[in-house]
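Supplementary Text 2. Reproducibility record for the structural model of the 699-residue chain.

All settings were left at their defaults, and a single model was retained for analysis rather than an ensemble. We include the record here because the model underlies the residue-level annotations in Supplementary Table 4.
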Amino acid sequence: KSLIDMYSEVLDVLSDYDASYNTQDHLPRVVVVGDQSAGKTSVLEMIAQARIFPRGSGEMMTRSPVKVTLSEGPHHVALFKDSSREFDLTKEEDLAALRHEIELRMRKNVKEGCTVSPETISLNVKGPGLQRMVLVDLPGVINTVTSGMAPDTKETIFSISKAYMQNPNAIILCIQDGSVDAERSIVTDLVSQMDPHGRRTIFVLTKVDLAEKNVASPSRIQQIIEGKLFPMKALGYFAVVTGKGNSSESIEAIRDYEEEFFQNSKLLKTSMLKAHQVTTRNLSLAVSDCFWKMVRESVEQQADSFKATRFNLETEWKNNYPRLRELDRNELFEKAKNEILDEVISLSQVTPKHWEEILQQSLWERVSTHVIENIYLPAAQTMNSGTFNTTVDIKLKQWTDKQLPNKAVEVAWETLQEEFSRFMTEPKGKEHDDIFDKLKEAVKEESIKRHKWNDFAEDSLRVIQHNALEDRSISDKQQWDAAIYFMEEALQARLKDTENALENMVGPDWKKRWLYWKNRTQEQCVHNETKNELEKMLKCNEEHPAYLASDEITTVRKNLESRGVEVDPSLIKDTWHQVYRRHFLKTALNHCNLCRRGFYYYQRHFVDSELECNDVVLFWRIQRMLAITANTLRQQLTNTEVRRLEKNVKEVLEDFAEDSEKKVKLLTGKRVQLAEDLKKVREIQEKLDAFIEALHQEK
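Retained model, structure tokens:
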């Protein structure tokens, strides 16, 4: 690498560091400032010997700082810091592409609602005869904010310019338009504030050809070049001509025109200007000399300041995190990535038994209400074995065709999410590092969002469930007992819910009123009276159907009115629903108990109305369907879905790895910031040391 390339790299790293950490580096660079349309960009193009910048007539074209590193090379080429594409500056189409790319990058840098941006575009230009230096072209200073500009544009340009110019080792290349009145200059005041003694300012007067034609007194140009007209001082004063105002002119044509103009100019002939003060060639040499002089004087001092910064940061790390390795954001991300992938692999180590247990339990929780309320209870109230089986078969078929497979897949997907979340979030003991928590949560959410269950799962599941529910043959006593236990458990849970609902309806019984000093409300008293009346009716006819006839409602109402209790028919119906439900469930549980000895009758196909255990067979069918569904879903999970989820996680991690903003958002904290600072400062110091060594060798 050439010396200037090494130096430019240091500035690039420093530029990133400054943007992130708000430190001010004091390494030299040539800062090109001037009023808008003063010809700054044209001067830069003459120094770079190529028309590389976007052009516009009178409008603002430089919308963000452009750092141009000039170096000597056999071919005239340009390339961006973050791109490998070389633009051949001898070809017009490459020049047009480069100008377009610079304009695109400027517009990309400018945030919404702004006109200019402080973000720097970094460009390297190599070519024969180029003077080695680093120049920064800044947006032109303006006096008035015009329509279409952000209201703070003027202040933003001033603050960007000041930020670059207040570096005590920056060389200020102050560009002044010679064709306008000196009194209209804004930039000269700014420069005189930043460098009042003119120790690092080079003044450049552009458009001298127009000035010579238009200015009535040529001595005015002489006054400017001698530093007597503007309220500022400078190291050197130069007069240049950078074109005739035609944007399509080539650099060679402009250079020829400039040399021809000065050869014939009265200003030189009358010794108002000295020969070394004119032409961009002389300006380039002077700026380059000044730049390298400043570099040699200041670079070691800068290296020392970074050594001190590094020592301070290392000391802070040792005191705060003595047992932790310094890992920057990217290294932490890699570590987290491996941890996450290990946790996903753990999913494949969940035992089949565990999967099936949680799937079966979750599925029953999801479908139990439908099975009992919509299938079992309506069928059980038929009081006839044939009608019971017909009702059950029709309802099971409808359920399997429409809802059941979908519900099963939903349950499986939720179970997979829960297990995945459990592995991702369960603490890993003392070694657990909470710095990864936000990242893991984001990866988990994004992976789940992207995961879609296999579309064919429902169809295959429908066939399996249909076949399981069609089967009615219980092969052994063990299965029979298991079905009875399953049925009892389900009915006991419903009975408990019903008794709670009834208690809320009628209020506390005498025991609770006595022990806990609770009283019934007026409404609860009415419900209680109604309940007692309905229970009497049920005692008289234990095989009462599920619905009350209208004459029965009238009888209950009249009986209550005779005791001074006014009731509404709807209240009687509501109370009856709970009273009958409790009665029915208790009867069903008693019948279930009788069926414990019914397997022999079932096996021999005996017809005994007392021991027709069709409800046990129904619950066996449901239980078997749950087991087969859980087994099928477990196979889908372990064979397909876990692997697909793992693939999703990998893709999410790869996407996050490419997104530096996402990493900054998800990996935060003092420890991360300190490691990032240390990495940057070490990188800057190493590059500075390598540059200083190369600089000494060149001497």
